[in-house]
Give the backbone structure.
Amino acid sequence: MLDIWTRLEALGPVQYPAEAKAAVLVPLYRDQEGRVRVILTKRPEHMRTHPGDVVFPGGRFEEGEGPEQTAKREACEEIGLPEGGVSVIGGLTPLTTRDPGNLIVPVVAKVKRPVQFVLQEEEVEAVIEPTMLDLLDEDRWRTSDWFGRTLWFYEFDEGIMWGATAFMMREFLKILRDV
């Protein structure tokens, strides 16, 4: 079986469609036991958009930024990832949220996990760090019809990953399985 970092060489480059408005970081690291984990955040319930959702760190482009710069900046601001501790591996397929005008570019990176996360409390209520093995377990995923579309859901104690984040995660897991 190939190491996850070798499998991730199959990722394509980060895309930058002209209509893209935001980027998220898919931050991966190896923990002390050797397990690869991904860092997700739970948005506070008071947020205007996507309240309570489990998501990747990310946000809208600022003037002069591309997806990689935005994803890194947002992860540093939201959870305190060290600026020099983010190494971009590649990208996933850009997609929209419930708002079809909001195209998001996923940026996959190997990161240096901080000893302690520093949360931007206005945007992050909690950090969730599942292992890739847990996420690869199909028995933990479920689907449901949502206005004629089949959506994926993955429940954590802290909340539910669904929608665009779940679609990105499913694409990522498919790449890991198919290599």
The CA atoms of residues 96 and 103 lie 5 Å apart.
